[in-house]
Amino acid sequence: MSESVLKVENVQRLHKTKQGEQVGVHDVSFAINAGDWVTLLGPNGSGKSTLLRLISSADWARQGEITIVGIRVHPGWTTRERHTVRAALGVVFQSPSLDPLLTIEENLRTAAALLGTSDAAGRVDELMDRFAIADRAGDRVGTLSGGLKRRADLARAMLGSPRLLILDEPTTGLDPEARLSLLDTLNGFKSLDPAPAILHSTHLTEEAERSDRVLFMDRGRLAADATPAELRAGLGDRTLKIEGPEARAWIEAHDLRASFTESGHALLSLTEPELERVMPELGRSGLSFSVGPPSLADAYASIVGRELNGSSGGGA
């Protein structure tokens, strides 16, 4: 049985907005085993960044418990506990943590010295080779493209061979080629011994599709926890999306079951025979609709009742 690297149990951390709303994370529970790649999927404001800050000990939960490599994360922990947990973590937040005035090699050597990494020079060289940045080792970070900065930042996070790698929207600002390259790199971590657990946040379904499990975040709450295939399988053979305020009346008149998003779109999960039966009448209805294979975006909209392309108002 795989070892549990991270346990999050009934965690809550709320903040009040100027409007008096309480936002953050509410009663979130899940666990990640060694070697697992788990994605937090949700729009901006769904609580992903707040949760990652709690797990990385940049902030503290007000209720519940977070345990990393068997040690509870809390404000009263001992120096030894803090050092053990932080040595087990590799963190890449949305804003790069590298000094733009130093070269890649200088950044990594400085970080390795602060971590007390054994054979720091060898480890830095190994990681520059792994992340294909060795030929740019002497370049100042401030002169690099977004993709190279991310690779250098990820190399920094891996200096201590972390047990848990935390990535907060790591592909923000990257072009499609650089994004795919970074995701391929993450997938390659499964071959490491030991392989780190990865907790990765994103609002992009194509990134979530690459992971072992997907956690749907909505307004600070966990709405689903399953594999990408399991989430899609719950939608049937085809997903039919009907737009506009008239959609509800048409669906009710034809005795169909649908889920509705806040924007008024209707989502129907249909088998092929059901789709063949409704399509002729739907085509004559004048309603705007689309049909396609089930996607993670469809699953999110069906389960959560809102779509991914917007703020959910639940905290960062």
In the CATH hierarchy, the architecture of the largest domain is: 3-Layer(aba) Sandwich
Give the uncertain stretches in residue-range form: 310-314
Percentage beta strand = 25-35%
CATH topology of the largest domain: Rossmann fold
Concise account of the structure shown:
The chain is an alpha/beta fold and 316 residues long. Helix content is 33%, strand content 26%. The protein has 2 domains: 4-227, P-loop containing nucleotide triphosphate hydrolases (Rossmann fold, 3-Layer(aba) Sandwich); 236-293, Alpha-Beta Plaits (2-Layer Sandwich).
List the helices and strands and how they pair.
Blueprint: E1 4-16, E2 22-33, E3 37-41, H1 48-55, E4 63-68, E5 71-72, H2 79-87, E6 89-92, H3 104-115, H4 120-130, H5 146-157, E7 164-168, H6 176-188, E8 197-202, H7 205-208, E9 213-218, E10 221-226, H8 228-233, E11 238-243, H9 247-253, E12 259-260, E13 266-270, H10 272-285, E14 288-292, H11 296-304
Parallel strand pairs: 3-8, 3-9, 6-7, 7-8
Antiparallel strand pairs: 1-2, 1-4, 4-5, 9-10, 11-13, 11-14, 12-13
